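Issue 218. Parser rejects a valid record. Input:
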Amino acid sequence: MSLFTSLSVSASGMGAQRTRAELLVENLANAETTRTPEGGPYRRKDVVFTSESQTSPFSSVFQAQIDANGVAASDVIEDTREPDRRYLPGHPDADKNGYVAFPKINPAEDMVDLMGASRGYQANVAAMTAVKDMIHRSLDLMR
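Output the parser choked on:
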């Protein structure tokens, strides 16, 4: 695998973790949202990752021998579980029995997932930095 393909793999990982982090932040921001334009409470969202072949424009000659897989966010799925019901008779979104439907979101779980996404992003940045240093040293050797 060429160094430029390694950069492409890390870049795909950074993009996937960014998407994951955006969805987790959206979930946390809407943890108490009881009314959406679609009706009902907010639905928690998760990202689905898939393997994606990475190509490098610099290594097109050797592409048949290179098997470099990155990652891509292929789908966003919504939680289909029943929402949590809380007894709040004075709430504007309360039903006739006084219960309000809230999103089924665990903020602690989403914060831990957000830390994982951040660490995954940082790991890809570190890998890109290492490849960049290798390229720089290679250029220094050729002088």
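Fixed in the parser; the record now loads. Residues 1 and 111 are 35 Å apart (CA to CA).
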